Amino acid sequence: MTTFEKIYEVVKCIPRGKVATYGQIARLAGNEKWTRVVGYALHANPKPDEIPCFRVVNRFGKLAPAFAFGGINEQAKLLRAEGVEVEDNTVDLEKYLWNGL
Fold this sequence. Notes:
Arc Repressor Mutant, subunit A
């Protein structure tokens, strides 16, 4: 399994209404140093309908300014559709952070 495939498998596990951080995905995929690689993988997501990359935010809960599938406003819209509150392009991690696998 490639690094990107490992990352995609973890991202698929994030439940509806929750978010995960790039670092959290990197750790769960097997290497905490893959944080940037997670970003690259999500930007290249071959199946955005199956791999919910919009549920991944930075360590401060900020959305991705260059969200590859419609920009930051689209990421906010997708999160809000799942009940995640987005304020100033930020998610409250204390409330919405996924607890992992």
